[in-house]
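Hi W., the guanosine-5'-triphosphate complex you wanted:
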Amino acid sequence: MLLKGVQLLRGGLVGPPKSYNFRLVCRSLSVQYGDAKVLTPAVKQYVEKCVDLCQPERVHICDGSAGESKLLQGLMLKQGTILPLPKYDNCWLARTNPADVARVESKTFICTERREQTVPVTPKATPGTLGNWISEADLQAAIGERFPGCMKGRTMYVIPFSMGPVGSPLSKIGIEITDSPYVVESMKIMTRAGNPVLDVLREGDGQFVKCLHSVGTPKSGVQVQSSWPCDPERTIILHKPADNEIVSYGSGYGGNSLLGKKCFALRIGSTIAKREGWLAEHMLILGITNPEGKKIYVAAAFPSACGKTNLAMMTPSLPGYKVECVGDDIAWMKFDSKGVLRAINPENGFFGVAPGTSRATNPIAMDTIFRNTVFTNVASTSDGGVYWEGMESAQLKDLTVTDWLGKLWSKESGKPAAHPNSRFCTPATQCPIIDPAWEDSAGVPISAILFGGRRPAGVPLVYEARDWTHGVFIGAAMRSESTAAAEHKGKVIMHDPFAMRPFFGYNFGDYLSHWLSMEKRGTVPKVFHVNWFRKSSEGKFLWPGFGDNSRVLDWIFRRVQGEKCFEDSPIGRLPSKGALNVSGIEGNIDLSQLFDLPKAFWQQEALEIERYFEEQVGGHLPRPVAEQLTELKARVANM
Ligand code: GTP
Ligand code: SPV
Ligand code: MN
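Structure:
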């Protein structure tokens, strides 16, 4: 089959090269940096296919070295992609095209043979909200319309990277091919990238996830700034789980372009995890030590921009407690031979939300990010520093501020200085409370799983699931106010089951069955739901959050230890009277409002969950989850 000059082959998204002889390709095309000889035959073949399709001017095989970073920084400075931030050590500011500022869920697709392998198929699910399916033919057409020649005049970078510590049995390898030096530098922070990964590939089974990325070249007539090439109109992010393959076009931003993160570690990862019997989740991992010196690990799934990074790095306000960070966004969890659920953080850095990060809210992040960091879409100050909403503004005295669009900024403008989804990309090793076991290839044992979201009304600060199946139901019923991390407009309460709605790699009904089946594989952790975001009738947060969330972790810790500090409620177990430690907390805490369960609200909530399951999951909903809903409705009716 031929499509616009690109031959299509079964078993791969990217068609075969005209010549399989890499040396031939290399002769007509200079390998400008690195040595093609270090590539395994399979990697060589993949690179060659991509060269043939994208027609770059040169190839750069990334070695992961500091010298390489210097080279790329120099290049990006010249192109205007990054600006120096001389106030700090080795920090840079990137300003994107204003049309390329967040993940684009609506243009993200999973390709499987049958539609229902990707999404629940129900008569009412139009449009479905649990992922987008694409057929093989449409996927090939999408590639054929965008990729041929898309790297003309550019350098193609080949990034070998490991998700998880290099060589760990829980880790997986990827090869990202990209035409963006910004992506290379970000991947070198967010993953373990470079030569050591190729050594593992050569010595191991040679398997890798294929990740092709191009910022794209708009159709003639469409102009974009040269400092941030992209093609927002034609952006598309494609996954083919059967071939462990990802193809992303048109965006240079975050989860769209750093393909190890959401595309690999979550979407492709969840399909591998399903096959192999483990879990790939949108979760932070933290270790917490109590005043007696006992330590547990906790994983927590909150939707994008709902507090994972903050919780993962929290400074407990409760005396005697210590929190240490294993990861802030993604957890790969697997039962070991003793039936203990163990988690690794497959990432190597933090791609964290900048606005709201301050000495008061997240001092640990502030101690992490002012070295070796790439900032994207934050504001800059005339002394060579950065600024964003929520940062202590005392620092601004006598300084001028340039906003994320590059324009002079003042508070009076009423516009944000930093984009709400502006981020820092910083090495995890720089975090002063990084857990001593964060790179342990066996992973850390997980005692509790937290689900949560932004719920301004009705949902209490914390409650506990009665058992595993109830916990899976709570994850499935998660809802949260939308944030700037995705392209949604306005603040609406959206369903975001398991905080994974944008990241499922396969049918959500099958995902639920997989979660339910975990109980048979080992000792399952306790499950909780938390909500730091409940508001008073005046619209103020009822809970101070941040370091005071340690008070909730304290209750969870005691529950994990079996303390009977709870009472039953229609929605789950609540802290019994006096069990939540609020002593020494600043300001008045209205616990009765924080834990109030309004009957009308919960009746409505149960109906909303029912409607969602019916419309979006339909016949794919596992019976035990449906039964949980029936039970909730009955209990709420008798409230
Ligand atoms: P992603 O990286 O998009 O997955 O986001 P995340 O879940 O890591 O969210 P993050 O910790 O970056 O928090 C996002 C926003 O929520 C920031 O503006 C924080 O200041 C705010 N936030 C985090 N924790 C709390 C809290 O306990 N209370 C309140 N009120 N706001 C919080
Ligand atoms: C998220 O949106 O959950 C993120 C940011 O962590 S991105 O990497 O852009 O997906
Ligand atoms: Mn995230």
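Confidence is low (pLDDT under 50) at residues 1-11, 16-27.

W.
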